Predict the 3D structure of the following.
Amino acid sequence: MNLPNLKEAKVRTTNEVAIKTDEYIVDPELKTFGKGKTYFVKTYGCQMNEHDSENIKAILEDMSFTETETMEEADLILLNTCAIRENAHNKVFGMVGRIKHLKQTKPELMAGICGCMAQEESIVEEIMKKYKWLDIVFGTHNIHRLPQILKEAKDKQEIEVFSIEGEIIENIPVKRDSKYKAWINIMYGCDKFCTYCIVPYTRGKQRSRTPEFILKEAKELVQKGYQEITLLGQNVNAYGKDLGISYNMANLLEDVAKLNIPRIRFVTSHPWDFTDEMIEVIKTYPNIMPYIHLPLQSGSDRILKLMGRRYTKESYMELFHKLKKALPHSSITTDIIVGFPGETEEDFEKTLEVVNMCEYDSAFTFIFSPRVGTPAANMEDDTPLEEKEKRLYRLNELVNQYAKKANDKYLGKIVPVLIEGRSEKDPNMMMGYTDTMKLVNVKNASEFVGKIVNVKITETKTWSLDGELLVD
């Protein structure tokens, strides 16, 4: 990031990097900074953002802040943002408007933006020009400096965005949203530079955590009775490539599996780095869940090349069949972008062909959203939005058809379900997930929250299952 013309606030950018230390330390004087005050954190985006918010919350509570569930009650509001799609930007700035009104009645309120949007030069410029009532802006590389940022923002607007990522900071505290499921970051950033993706610019280059820190965190979760952990990264399959040691994702998966935590998951995978060694490890250890998220993005080799995806339709299908052969009962989901610049009807039909061949359990589907600073944003895009919307509708119809077909196979079967809590749609039901990541709603299961129980599936829907608890 380069912001040479911003004069209105201190902006740490250009070549400055995060503090070079592997230890999170808080100035003792800041331990009581938030005493008697409350905070509200709103999170947008992926699991990585959610986990960042868990760190942010823990840091604030380490400063004696107390969490509140409403913005109106908060003394500090932080919006932890996503930069993947334009819609996310609109939602955030809508919330910023609400904050302005709150500040008119509560002038002592502090508020700010952090996360991926804060790493975008155009966003920082916009905040400084239009949204001067925001007190702080910080990026993805300096969460560990939040106490100092808050202290410095007491008297003026504080914008601290590192343009170059520093070393990984270990031992940042975490306030986990669940007592049963946990995320573990195994790496940060990405080196793939897909032409549509802003992640390498907002999250930085790939940096893998060393195995000892990951395994230490996993062991602690096992000791606390956690039932499931998810290994997180922008491209988990590439884990370890930057460490300079002979240790990769397959090695890490195996070592985590040997800790005997009941359930292990990992997201997100890039087909380019999915190895036979990984498949063999997943097949060998039953506590590695038979659920694979395998982004396709497009079924057209021409579009895949424009996207910079590094694989072809043929190589993707070869990997898909390997996974299904090794893990015949696995659930495979995907991501698909519709309307990438230059996509023709023929290209789109090739995507539908892959969906028909793979019969995905589900898919996250999107219309292409250009992100400023990415190569794809400068590509000629002559397909009308109306046509893109029609293609998305056709794709979703097909995806829904196969999602229901996949769920129908569960009717009458007995499956293990980790009960997580009360269903959002029906307060009389509890909800949880199967090993294959199927959402299940269950009656009379409130006493089994945090436990893996057997459930008989009694009804199937497109995106969920209903079942009855089986108790010995």
